[in-house]
Structures are given as structure tokens and as C-alpha cells.
From TrEMBL:
<comment type="similarity">
    <text>Belongs to the phosducin family.</text>
</comment>
<protein>
    <submittedName>
        <fullName>PDCL2 protein</fullName>
    </submittedName>
</protein>
<dbReference type="GO" id="GO:0005737">
    <property type="term" value="C:cytoplasm"/>
</dbReference>
<dbReference type="GO" id="GO:0006457">
    <property type="term" value="P:protein folding"/>
</dbReference>
<dbReference type="Pfam" id="PF02114">
    <property type="entry name" value="Phosducin"/>
</dbReference>
<dbReference type="InterPro" id="IPR024253">
    <property type="entry name" value="Phosducin_thioredoxin-like_dom"/>
</dbReference>
<dbReference type="InterPro" id="IPR051498">
    <property type="entry name" value="Phosducin-like_chap/apop_reg"/>
</dbReference>
<dbReference type="InterPro" id="IPR036249">
    <property type="entry name" value="Thioredoxin-like_sf"/>
</dbReference>
<feature type="domain" description="Phosducin">
    <location>
        <begin position="46"/>
        <end position="204"/>
    </location>
</feature>
Amino acid sequence: DPNEDTEWNDILRHFGILPPKEKLKDEIEEIVLHLQKEAEKIHAIMKLYERMNLEELKEAEDYFDDADRKAVEMYRHRRLQEWKCLQRTPKYGELREICGEQYVKEVTNASKDVWVIIHLYRSSIPLCSLINEHFDLLSRKFPEVKFLKAIVNSCVQNYHDRCLPTILVYKTGEIKGRFVGAAECGGMFLKVEELEWKLAEVGAIETDLEENPKKDIMDMTLSVQSISAHEDINAKSSDAMKPCIT
């Protein structure tokens, strides 16, 4: 630090390598003031150019000085950053209702880089209502994915209730996954995390869950089945050891 009051800096000042302290301070203040004025000028120029259209800006280029060029470069850089932010802005972020007439446009002909998940439902079926609630939460958690719902009669006539709920997962106009009926969809006690895991398994979303939320329930079921089987074997063994009374 040239401003630091050390013996080494005193030696450098003595040999003229460092300027005197007061002079150095004045020079730094002068540089800071100059940079501030230049920044203010560039900011003012940027404000002026923001009000111009492309044709006016092109005509003004003939009269540019260094400050103008810096201002234009900064303006372009800022606009580029704003554009990049817009590209990262969530496209969806909500569960939308569509009808059969919109199916081709919203689902089959959706953008190639977009996953589309649609729930065919009937409002009179409790599990359908539960899945719509879960979809609403998941659509906000994964805004880059298009979550849709549609009353089944508007899309498919004479669709059996036993096939509801029906969840279809699309990418590039093709079905990448399907869950048809209560059992495949997860049952009436389906949790939103379980539905998230199902959708992640077909590749539609990138979940932060580390393992299947239903794993504990499955392990518990297997454990109960194992205990029951063990007790049954013991009971049979015990019966086999009893004396036969005639």
C-alpha cells in the first residue's frame, strides 16, 4: 500500500520511486473524481440512447467519441444480460385447464424442449381432485414443465371411470409415460412427493428427492408380510409337533 506509513515506503519516497504522501493522495482523489465524472457521462449517454430507435442510433454512430462507444457497449452488455435473464424466466408455473379442442396445440404440438404433463380427470372422483391439488403445487416447483388438466369428456368420449385418474407425460409430441387408474397413480393416500417421484422416474422433472418417498411404506409392508409369514411357519411347526389325538 503506497499510502501506508512504513519505513520501506519512506525509503521508496526518498529515492523518488513513490511520490510524496500528500501528492499521492491528491493524485488518487483526482483519478477517483475523473472516473466518477466519466461514469456519470456514460450513464447520461446510455439514458439518451435508450430513447432512440435502431435507425436513430445508427445515424448517431458517426459522431461517437470514446465515451459514446463505451456507453453503447455497456448498454448492449446490459441488454444482453436482461435477455439472458428473460430466457431463464419460468415459462409456466401454474396448472392450466384446457379442453379437447386445445389438446393438439397445447400437448401434441408443444415446443420440442418442453415436457408436458396432462391429467385427464372427472371432478366427481376424489383421487382426481387430490391429483389436481398436487399438480398445482408441482407446477410452481417446476415452472419449466407445462402442467395441464382436462375434463376427460372434453378429450375422450365414453372413457371408463376405472381408468381415471389418467396422467400422460409428453415430450416432442410423443407419450413418454402414462399412469392409468387409481393403482398406477398411487391410490387415495397419494402424497405429492410420491407423485413427484413418479414423474421424475419417467424423466419429466428433475427432483431433489434422494429416494422414493414410498420406500419406507414398501419396506414396512414387506416387514409385516415377513413377520406374518414367520408366525405362520411357527404356527404350522407347532401344530406339527402336537400329539395326534384320535
